[in-house]
Amino acid sequence: MLALLAVLAFCRPAAADDQTDCINSENPDRAIPACTRLLRTKPDFLSATYAYRGSAYVTKQDYDHALADLNEAIRLGRREFFVYGLRGMVHLQKNEYDQAIADFTELIRLNPPRERRALSHSLRGEAYEKLGRKEEAIADFRAALTLDPSLTQSKEGLNGRQRAAVDEYQARLG
């Protein structure tokens, strides 16, 4: 019996390994189970763990699970620009533009670093554009370019459609 317990102890991942895999793993197939185990074993870190697992689901493009985890992280008190930004991007992917606008607005209110604010304005501008709210989209693209003039050349965080919209609005702004 003691030998069996020793074998089981070596087969089961350590909590520290789960924490590292949950937070730092770029492989969502490794991060999601690690975060799930942490949710059962580390109740003091629930909001952070839900946020990290939600991020891993975003990487897998499993937007329904991502949204559930990000909602839970916020409900538990994780009110950080990282969580609102991820949830806003999930809403954009799901064509839920009003919810995306609300999340990017909250993210901007939290006053993240300049480049994150610029990206948030750009993404909120995309949501406004999808809803046909062109003036609000223009205002957000203008704010994004004011915060980060190189944003039009940025490939990180902006897909081709957003870059084209930013270029169009920048040209219109003169």
How is this structure best described in words?
The protein has 174 residues and is mainly alpha-helical. It folds into two domains: 14-78; 81-174, Serine Threonine Protein Phosphatase 5, Tetratricopeptide repeat. The chain is built from ten helices and no strands.
| Order of H and E elements | HHHHHHHHHH
Measured as a percent range, the helix fraction is over 70%
Helix count, DSSP H or I runs of 4 or more residues: 10
User: Whole-Å distance between the termini?
Assistant: 77 Å
Report the CATH architecture of the largest domain. Answer: Alpha Horseshoe
- Oligomerization category of the chains in this entry: single chain
Q: What would the CATH topology of the largest domain be?
A: Serine Threonine Protein Phosphatase 5, Tetratricopeptide repeat
β-sheet strand percentage: under 5%
* Spatial extent as radius of gyration: 19 Å
Count of folded domains: 2
- CATH homologous superfamily caption of the largest domain: Tetratricopeptide repeat domain
Please identify the top-level CATH class of the largest domain: Mainly Alpha
Class computed from helices, strands and strand pairing:
mainly alpha
Number of DSSP E strands? 0
Weakly predicted, low-confidence segments:
1-14, 153-161
| Biggest sheet statistics | none
Shape: elongated
Task: Average the pLDDT over all residues and give the rounded result.
Answer: 81
